[in-house]
## 1
Amino acid sequence: MSAAAADAVAGRLRAEPETVLLLPTGVTPLGMYRRLVEMHAGGELSFAGATFFNLDEYLGLTPDHPSSYHVYMRDNFYCLVDVDTGRVHVPDGNAPDPAAECKRYEGMMAEAGGVDLCVLGIGRNGHIGFNEPGAPFDSRTRIVKLAETTRLVNAGDFEGARAPERAISVGMRTIFESREILLLASGANKADAVAAAAGEEVSEAVPASMLQAHPHATFMVDGDAASAVGDIP
Ligand code: PGA
């Protein structure tokens, strides 16, 4: 899965070095980032012309907070390749006016010409970015409340095992407007979410199901994550 995802990103960058990417955090994409770093180290791939956006950031965390997605992206990817730091964007979770920050971030994506390739993980509850079940399909970058289940899954990333209650997340509509979308999932704990997302019903109750209506969305999943597809009508 990680190799296929890295190949897809690399292929897009080689065809169009000025690609605009919208990228995820979490455990799932770590292998993809590792492979992209290896391709760069081997002299096979440059990121210098690309523009990067991240899907989300916890509200209230400074960019240097060890559990922030700023630090995750810096340590796992941006610091290890040749990105132009002026073209790397992560929502500022510590902005004095978070609503204005959401607007600014959405505006930057539009100014960049929209997203060419969006890579997503999927939550056990079917979330994409931090768009939890019930997120309107027409939503834009905004402040969201995290599902309690999401906070529990992510609690281990935080001192005191308490994840923030809110985040800034790129919205469903903005994700959908990406020209191409890859959703990555691995492991049996994603099987129900993948099955619901790929099932017959497209519903805001399962955010990832929105991708069924997208002309260029691909689910890249391993055998365990695909194991319940077909079980859920
Ligand atoms: P994970 O998170 O890759 O850490 O499982 C995915 C997600 O919640 O979107």
Note: The two ends are 25 Å apart (CA to CA).
## 2
Amino acid sequence: MPNRRNVYLYYTPSDELEPKVQELRKLGRKYDFQLVKNPDEANIIASIGGDGAFLQAIRKTKFREDCLYVGINDGHLGFYTDFDLNNLERIEAGMQASGLEVLRYPTLEVTVDEMQSFQCLNECAIRSNIIKTFAIDVFIDDLYFETFRGDGMVVSTPTGSTAYNKSLGGAVVDPKLKGFQLTEISSINNNQYRTLGSPLLLNKDRELVLKVIQDGNDHPIIGADNEALSIRHIHELKIRLSEKEIKTLRMKDNLFLHKVRRSFL
Ligand code: NAD
């Protein structure tokens, strides 16, 4: 990381965390890293916490392509956090740039009603916010595909496939495969309503359009990773794999399959 020296630490301060963060700051100074107070001045953004903190750090700093994002956990190994605040030796090895690899994670680009756009690293979820089901017409590349009725749908990236998507029976996807996956949340399947009923993995150049059928329950919640959007009334979500990727650092001995095995097997 010779050209990247301005580091912003993204974390929620606490009495328990502060002494460990001080040690991390000391280590950073030893290797000539500048700790900046404004994320706009940073070219490395390090989150301290779990996967949720990493997702928030990226969202709050607007998915910057000119930054390297680093996830540092505090004892709970996650999917986006390769470093442990309780293992400074490993972080020091990272600062010396030995055994490190830069990874590029694909993101989703979601456009709401042709007006507002946002990115997601894990997934975009559309869910009923009341106890009633709601309905969505699904189009793929302008082709009408199915009409869904149920609790909602989730569109996930490859790295997000091990999160909400997996709980819905979606496939775990190797992040080397560039594409995105559509999964259903409790679809109704009977003689009146019919959906595919299984996860659908789409290639990176597909465009998915989810049109909310305006039948009374047409105020679903839209979730972008771990944040709910404040949009009240939507007609249509257009979703595709974004050209913008997130750059992150990984230790070479912590591959995707290591993480899957460590977390689930
Ligand atoms: P949270 O506190 O509800 O934790 C969710 C769990 O998901 C945590 O253990 C986190 O480490 C894990 N996680 C997050 N991203 C992951 C990934 N890419 N692969 C594997 N595990 C992952 O919320 P949070 O920590 O803010 O995480 C937000 C994520 O939670 C959302 O993006 C969504 O994927 C997931 N989520 C899951 C469910 C579910 O499984 N039923 C429901 C809602 C949200």
Note: Residues 18-30 form the longest helix (13 residues).
## 3
Amino acid sequence: MIKSIVAGNWKMNKTPKNGKLFISEVLANMGQISNIDIIFCPPFTGLYNLNISPPFYLGAQNCYFEDSGPYTGEISLNMLLECNVEYVIIGHSERRRIFNEDNDSINKKVLKAIESGIKPMLCIGETIDEMNAGKAYNIIKKQLISGLNNIKSLKNIIIAYEPVWAIGTGLTASSEQINEVHEFIRKILSQLFDDKESNNTPILYGGSVNSANANELISIDGVNGFLIGGASLDVIKFSKIVKIVNDQ
Ligand code: PGA
């Protein structure tokens, strides 16, 4: 049985002060959580000096694959470790599209995160053009295989399937589409790794998840939780989604 995960990707939102306040409000609003892990992913500046404990964890939104050196604007895994970061989003579609990250650099980040003891959340998903051209499965397969190149074990890896056309648009994939893609992802994982590992890897769905559709989305076979953007910025909406997943 895979433990469900709800991760909130704040993107470039909330100052350190706002973020700290937000987390304390979510914790106060949450009640008893018994079944799931919750990951807050603030911007880098909001990661320092946050005091949270399981089932709440900290995630970063990106990292670099070198330890230190002349890489202006980058953040290493060591720096994240010192902020008690336990997860890192890698290969988000906004990083791929706006910052030109390719599968090769994404793979280097995944490898470095694993080596450092931080769990990568590898994001994959097709654009609207790729979907319309019937290429979605090829793209997903390629992103998955390249992202996991040279990875020896899936043990600390999370996959997040996020159709790019569903991110921040209010559109979500249909239950059938999501179920099919999640099964496809698990099939690819089972071709690359042994059954025990591939069957135990969390596969999250992301793309316009909100408190109104969370119930339906979490009951789709193969969905082990969510990576949430917009709705993760609102105390009431985020807490409601967490409760829905916890109570499922
Ligand atoms: P969204 O973003 O929930 O606002 O669609 C999801 C994401 O980018 O991870």
Note: Residues 9, 162, 167-168, 206-209, 227-231 surround 2-phosphoglycolic acid (CB under 6 Å).
